[in-house]
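User: Before I run my own analysis I want an independent prediction to cross-check against. Here's the chain; please return only the structure tokens and, at the end, one sentence I can use as a sanity check.
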Amino acid sequence: MKEFRTKGMRWLLEDEGLADVLGRLPEVSGGRRHYATVPYKDGKLFIKTFVEKGALGALRNRTIPRGRKEYETGKRLASIAIRTPDCHGYGVGSNRSCVIQDWVDGEGFVHVFFRHGYRERLIPALAELLRRLKENGVCHNDLHLDNVLVSEGILYLIDLHKTKMKDALSDKDELSNLTHALTMIYEDLSGEEKGLFFELYGNRGIQKAVEGEIARLRKIWIESKKKRAFQETSKIVRRGERLYVAGMEDQGSGVFVEALKSDKKVKVERYGDHIRKIYKGRRRLERAWRNHIALLYLNAAIIPQAYYVKLPSLFSDGFIAMEDLGGQGRELDRYLDGSYDAFDVAQRHRFIDAFSGFMKRVIGQGIVHSDMKACNIFVVNNDHFFFLDVEDIGFDATDEAVIKRMLVQLNNTIPKKVPARDRLRLFAQWTRSMNVDRKRLLKDIIQESLKGEIVYEGVSGLMREKW
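Assistant: Structure tokens:
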């Protein structure tokens, strides 16, 4: 290791050529994490900076700097053939430390799993990774699947500064690895996939304990992410009176175009490059932003991308700026009113199967919408769906009563032109494999729906239709 000093940092490097790269790095300030990618030789390097704050942070930086810990852990994992980005050195300063790694051109496991599929390869690969961690006494301590990258079919373990390596894992350590890793995908797995995972992992007897712990941890995890929604974190950057989603600092600056909606609770306005939802009450604004951040951590991709939040002041309401989906599709009620008649049978079936798949995935992640009207669902390219009114999203276990409420709300807000056979197909697809009495549930939905009328926003305006 070669020692190099610059800008108040002491670097220990495996390659002297890195010194020139590090000397050109910009200064960092604020926040707790900073990330940089720089070209080097035939590839790129990833440099992660940990900023320490307060007395405890200063003490930690003097005794066990997190940059050094990640470097040393990465080296040890590589020596036992557990893939992580190759480490090339680390640096330590008065209130910060850094690690230098190869840049891995990959995507998070959850994103690949839900967006691209490959389940038949990803599930065995994850079981193999977790089995190797157990066999080698590795407890990651933050093993959510954002910390597993997929690159060309290979899994890479990242974010190693909390990792501990032991002679053998305790039952608690093993449960920690499994539950943290499986929480974000477990409810989307079929019974057969769950059985296959634990068989390949090599311990089917732990499945029941894992399922109980997942339910407990998921609730705690969601609440912890919500509490951090108004703090600077790796996901949130403060710029004056605004809190930005990291990476979105240049978004949401267009000029006013038109007003879209106004009622007692909110105003919705279109700007040149974003939609602005202005909340007339602080509580709804805060709930919406917390949900945006929780879903961001979940990588759920079921709502418009948020850019930033501006909190209310004495003279102005608060608002959330987010991406404008308007040119890409329409709300579900308008979409069905304008397009459904032109669909042939195959197109209708494809649409219903895509929508039911979306809802099964959402519910499988423990996400529910308390105002499941068709106007609160946005359709893009016929087969992609997004929830609107993010403040009405909750993170609760779904039971028969919740499913019934959501389906009744939806049933009474889609045009009558959607025939009973297609509504039944949606019900069958949506509730398949759920632990509910489907016959009784269907009967209850029909009876409850018939008590009201069909009300929706069509292409020509507000529509009311009798059953």
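Sanity check: The first helix runs from residue 18 to 23.
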